[in-house]
Design brief:
The longest helix has 10 residues. The protein is built from 4 helices and 8 strands, in the order E-H-E-E-E-E-H-E-E-E-H-H.
Amino acid sequence: MIDGGSTHNFLHNRVVLSLGLKTTETTPLRVTVGNGEEIHCNQLCTAVQVHIQQHSFTIDFHVLPLCGVDVVFGVQWLKTLGPVLTDYGALTMKFITGGKLIELHGDREKGIEPMSPSQLHRFVHTNPTTTFFHIRVETATTHNSSPNHPLPAINTLISKYTSLFQPPATLPPSRSTDHTINLLPNSTPVNVRPYRYPYF
């Protein structure tokens, strides 16, 4: 993620471990994340070779347990590019580095896509910042109303009062005291916050 609101470049510690990158101790950096919480990081990965859309960059990263992304390219990297032309409508970034015009294209949101077995294997072993859903269609089965409890005494009670365990299909029957809210004629519906009522 390219983030102009981030002062530094950050790399998830999981990526550091999976790629076997070397880290060095640095002056502790206090990072305020999106929810306002402060996280301290004191590790730095220097001169990391990053390839973005056939372009290579050498970038320093602070190691941080990120949430939502694996890599953050902040102002620390952006200011090394010089003037940057950003088109948020087309999701493009243009800048000149080494006398060469470079244009990066952002990824537009895609719909849900099926996951291959190899992707699932990598997902389980690398614990990436992503989400997957397992959807299964099950055939309708009849509800088994017979008691199935390991204690026979409980089974007896369930069988005896089976009508109490059925989902309600109607309003409860009228009791000796039915609660009512008496309204004046043509009054508007009551719209106040809930509060405790005295027992009487």
